[in-house]
C-alpha cells in the first residue's frame, strides 16, 4: 500500500488497543472505552506509518474515544484535524456491551451462534443488525467520498471495517468474521 488509498481514495484504519480487546474479550460496541498503553503506542506507530507511506488530504473518525484518540495522534503528525462522525462507530451491541464473549456464549448459546454465523436475521438484543451497521458506515463513507477531500483516512473499528470489506466479498455479510483487521491496521479500499 505504498502511498495509495485504493480505487476509492479511502484508507480505513482500526483504532489502537483497549482493555476490552484483550483476553478475555468483551463486546465493546458503543461502549466508550479508552486506549490502553499498548493502544497509545499502536496509534503512534500508525501515525508514523501514515505520515511516511500515504498521502492524506482529510482525516475522519468515529466519535468514540478509542478511535478519536487514535485519530488525534495521527492528526498531530500529519497536520490534518479529524472530522468526527458517529456513523463510523462500531456496531451497536446493545445488551451485550461490556459482557464477556464467553459469558454470552454460555448464557445465550443460540443467539451467540447466530452472531458467529453472521446470520442475516441476527440482531444484537437492544442493538442493531449487521446490515444496519453496514448501511450506516457505508453512508458515512459515501459522504466522505462526496466531500471531494480525497484521499482520506478514516479511523474506525474492526466491525465497521469488516462490514465494508463484506460489500466486495461474494459471500456478503456472511463473511463478516473472516475479515480481520488488527488494532492499528490499515486497509485501502
Going by CATH, the architecture would be 3-Layer(aba) Sandwich
Query: How helix-rich are the residues, as a percent range?
Result: 25-40%
What does the radius of gyration come to?
16 Å
Taking pLDDT < 50 over at least 5 consecutive residues as the criterion, the unreliable ranges are: none
The fold-level CATH name is: Rossmann fold
Listing every helix as H and every strand as E from the N terminus to the C terminus, the arrangement reads EHEHEHHHEHE
CATH class: Alpha Beta
Task: Give the overall shape, derived from the CA principal axes.
Answer: globular
Mean pLDDT: 95
Q: State the separation between the terminal residues, measured CA to CA.
A: 10 Å
Q: Strand percentage, roughly?
A: 5-15%
Report the total helices. Answer: 6
Sheet with the most strands: spatial strand order: 3-2-4-1-5
Secondary structure layout:
Layout: E1 10-14, H1 37-53, E2 58-61, H2 65-78, E3 83-84, H3 101-107, H4 109-116, H5 130-147, E4 152-156, H6 158-167, E5 186-188
Parallel strand pairs: 1-4, 2-3, 2-4
Antiparallel strand pairs: 1-5
What's the short version?
The protein is of the alpha/beta class. The chain has 6 helices and 5 strands, in the order βαβαβαααβαβ.
List keywords for this structure.
189 residues, alpha/beta, 5-stranded mixed sheet, 39% helix
